[in-house]
Amino acid sequence: MFHISDIKKYNRCDRYFYLNQLAPKPYFPFATCNESTLELAKQFLNCTEYYEGKSGDAGELVLAQLDHYDTFVAARFTYQDLRVTIPFLRKQQDGYQVIFTNNQCFPKESEAAYLAIACWVLKQNGIQVNDVKMIHLAADYVREETLDVFKVLMLDDYLYHDKKQTHKTIFEIISEQKLDVDNLLIGMRSALAEYPEGKQRSSVCTHRGKCDYFDRCFNQEEKPDSVYNLVQSGMKYDLVDAGKTELGMLDGDDIEGTRHQYAQIMAARSESGLYFDVFAMRDWVKRRIQYPITYLDFEWETYVYPPYQGMKPYDVLVFQYSMHVENTPGAPLLHEQFIGTGDCRVAFIEDLLAKIPAEGSVMVYNAVGAEMLRLKQLAVQFPQYSERLKAIWERMVDLSLPFSTGNIYDVRMAGAYSLKKLVEIFTDYDYHDLSISHGMEAVANWRSLQADEINDEIREQLYEYCGMDTYSMVLVYHMILDVLKKYE
Asked: What is the pLDDT at residue 60?
């Protein structure tokens, strides 16, 4: 049986749909859904007498119960080989009300087509839908001692634009959808019948990160100076079609003209493969860096439902930091670290404040979206520490900026500038030999530590990974200093 999730995959790419059916990849959500949305929604709607479906139910089961219940929860309905699950179906005087659930604070209008398909299946089963609503998270909810289901959830008539605005009700948007479910199902069956050939690389392949099957589709080794690696470009696929496959082939008419693109082209034309703006970097070091330098990195978990007092939906809980301190240029590094379990926010704050130097630069990687934001959230949750936390984030220097702005670019970066990528390119170190090699693995291991706090092996693996992040910053920053010395 097909499900709505399969339709989403097929609409993205028929080959992605085929490969996912053949060899599904494990899914690791970036946020932990620490409560059952369906169970909370049943409380929110005050459901007492209802029919509840189960996974794998045949569509006939719920149809046989329509005359016996007024409320249906997680009911399965089918049309041909498509099965949809309706979170809540409530009988009204002249039809039914459908209530969908969504784990976001602002469910997007892009979901309307899939909600429309679910309602269309209901219609094929003789069920007239007269009203559609959505239960979703309340963005402004702040948890008190216990989770308040009547405040953390809200019943909404609307979906939202990317700018979190509304203009039509869900029912209106669904009614406007032009559906051809029969042809959609024919296409999905055809896609599974044989491997879809002749796929061309497009923006879909790398939208919000590379597709899980990217290397399988395009297994030829891509050169680092490929035009596909041109950042912030809406023209690169047309350029490749025109035969301009390497960055060094491009001229001013081929790019939007960002500094980063310019750096990529200049690096590709350089014998060394490196573009390094000496004047900009010399000024950056002179104006922004003061000793002692504290290299700082956090690890955190994101929760859909706030697990502790003072937290909002999708707030994070910072559970670890690593700190390398360089008191004077080239001085031996001092290392401090922390890991907490449970609600360790206060312990984290107090340990950090006790050990971080009171002056000098605090070097982080991607400051605004990571460590700075984490400290600002903690300052709101614990205002008694706000001034001291503010004193830390005001000293932060973002080591990613020289690379993201195009002041430094090496063709081996291939359009990326993650810390892991940089340390592999510019030093002899990498993350491959670590037991934990990326942030989501760290989160998964920390989750295991919650159930086994005395597991020293997991604790050491987490220390090793986070410590590698701060040491990598040391190495990358000193690479910058080494290049500058060549021009003194």
From this structure: 94
Q: Residue 67's pLDDT is what? A: 94
For 374-422, the pLDDT digits (tens) are 999 999 999 999 999 999 999 999 999 999 999 999 999 999 999 999 9
Which of the residues in the chain have pLDDT under 50? none
| Residue 220: predicted pLDDT | 65
Q: Tokens 């709101």 label which residue? A: 380
Q: Give the chain's domains with CATH numbers.
A: 4-187 (3.90.320), 281-485 (3.30.420)
Residue 423 has which token pair?
Answer: 């340390």
Q: Which two tokens stand for residue 225?
A: 């100076």
- Is the separation of the CB atoms in 90 and 70 below 8 Å? yes
